[in-house]
Amino acid sequence: MLMVVILICVVFGLWAWYLRNNNKNEPPAMPGALPVIGHAHLLIGDSTKLWAYFKELSHISLNVGRAITTYIGPRTVYVITDPDDFLTVANTCLQKDGFYDFAKPWIGEGLVTGTVSIWKVHRKLLNPAFSQIVLDSYLGVFNKQSRRLVKDLEVEVGKGSFDHWIYTRHNALETICLTALGVDFTDKNVLNSKYVMATEQMFNLIVDRFQKVWLHSHFIYSWSSLKKKQDEYLKILHNLSYTVLQKRKADYLKNRNNNEEPTQGPKFKSFMDILLELSIEKGAFNDREIREHMDTIIVSGHDTSASVLMYSMLLVGSYPKVQERIFEELQDVFGDDDRDVTKHDLSQLCYLEAVLKETIRIYPIVPVIARHLDRDVKLRNCTLTGGRTCCMFIYGVHRHPMWGPDAEKFKPERWLDPATLPKCPNAFAGFGLGKRSCIGKWYAIMSLKTSLAHLFRHYRLRGDHTKLEVKIDVMLKPVSGYHIAIERRNK
Ligand code: HEM
């Protein structure tokens, strides 16, 4: 078996080696390629090492015209870090790269991984679920969940460093279930923990597969021990989403038969309401498709927000002056009142929003995205060849020289004055760019601002982000998270 695998790799490698130099206007090649395997040997190691390699790729790309060519066995993979080129590729080639197929057993044809023809129809149908009017209707839940987080953290007051990532993850999972899906898991701790664990393991597994180039083949992967583990985790993940689906569907049908408006949940149609309505009344989705959209929203909606909350708490804890400025802004808006955050308050919390954006710029939790090039794409300094993979390095875009010599510094105030921001509108790509950018951007900003407004009214944080080691588990994750301590704020 091993011999067959090696033989296949060698044949593909030689073939790709032969084909790869035909485009004379291609970006320069990344140094260090070996015959046949290309740069695949640089992917080997744990996910911290992989992240170090990705950072190096970003910096090399930034230094040589914002684009380089790498080779993973038979595949040619471009790395780009120019913001305008990023947008060009993002809007010219809408198809996600084959690497995203590693997540398809989990989230299928949901928006993140969906094939273009399906994505085009479904994104249009689902956009209204993230309209401002729907998001405003979630503000009550965002406040309730933020208060819950403040309360949960009470046990850590004065006890020294602890892992706040555990708290933000559980809280964000409950929030996405309450809002987008209309189900309450706040008293189901065991289920919640199992789901969070399975999500983490699935991300590990996808990265593990990425690093083991021979497992890129679906056939070889299907015989691997990794695939067996994947099946176990998927059982947990799909079990939860199917349970929610059955319950919500039964409620929908009951209300429809009784001609009743739902008594619980938001007044406006949530993501789940829209899915059910389109499925039951118009036959737009079958159960599998609903489940795939639900799984996509659960994972992309909770892990992202939880990570940004975790990193922003750590960064603010590391910069006392930033923390005091946040508190001053909160005092200006709320005084000593512990009331809920309103829509109007959110529009006034400009410094807090700057903190969030700067956090995502420094720690882009989705640091790389990839497209399949279905045609040749002409960029500013080079041409990418169709049929290949283009990785857009958000991490690199956020360190482009247009951010200035202090690009590595956490400086929220740069967001307050257009003169201190890059002129290029694409320089910030934390939520992706173009037609397939994040559908949940404003959901995330609203929920995160609400959480931070509650947290910083109650606590003073201390942290040290320079001690944080990160790894890439699809998203940018902490290796360990014991870097903040909290104290109650005496106003
Ligand atoms: C701060 C938090 C978030 C960040 C930084 C973020 C970032 C991103 C990025 C970079 C992409 C593009 C992915 C790619 O092209 O492969 C994306 C897509 C997506 N995000 Fe987010 N996201 C966040 C929060 C959310 C939330 C809260 C939701 C849902 C409630 C969500 C749902 C999605 C979906 C469904 C897509 C796929 C969009 C499409 O292809 O049409 N995200 N996000």
The count of DSSP E runs of length 2 or more, i.e. the number of strands, is: 10
Sequence stretches where pLDDT stays below 50 over 5 or more residues: none
Individual helix count: 18
Query: How helix-rich are the residues, as a percent range?
Result: 40-55%
Helix and strand pattern = HHEEHHHHHHHHHHHHHHEEEEHHEEEE
Shape: globular
For the sheet with most strands, the description reads: 4 strands, mixed
Bound molecules: protoporphyrin IX containing FE
Distance between the termini: 68 Å
* Fraction of residues in β-strands: 5-15%
User: Which whole number gives the mean pLDDT?
Assistant: 91
Provide the gyration radius in Å. Answer: 23 Å
Question: Structural class of the helix and strand makeup?
Answer: alpha+beta
In short:
By secondary structure, this protein is of the alpha+beta class. The protein has 18 helices and 10 strands. The chain has helices at residues 2-19, 47-63, 83-92, 104-107, 116-126, 132-137, 139-153, 164-181, 189-211, 218-222, 225-257, 271-282, 287-318, 320-334, 343-348, 350-362, 394-397, 441-458, and strands spanning 67-72, 75-80, 368-372, 377-378, 383-384, 389-393, 459-463, 470-473, 475-478, 484-488.
Describe, in plain words, how this protein is organized in 3D.
The protein is an alpha+beta fold and 491 residues long. Helices cover 53% and strands 9% of the residues. The protein has 18 helices and ten strands. The protein has helices at 2-19, 47-63, 83-92, 104-107, 116-126, 132-137, 139-153, 164-181, 189-211, 218-222, 225-257, 271-282, 287-318, 320-334, 343-348, 350-362, 394-397, 441-458; strands at residues 67-72, 75-80, 368-372, 377-378, 383-384, 389-393, 459-463, 470-473, 475-478, 484-488. It has a four-stranded mixed sheet with strand order 1-2-6-3. Strands 4-5 form a two-stranded antiparallel ribbon. It has a two-stranded antiparallel sheet with strand order 7-10. α7 (139-153) packs antiparallel against α8 (164-181). It is globular. The chain starts with a helix and ends with a strand. The structure holds protoporphyrin IX containing FE (HEM). Protoporphyrin IX containing FE (HEM) binds next to α13 and α18.
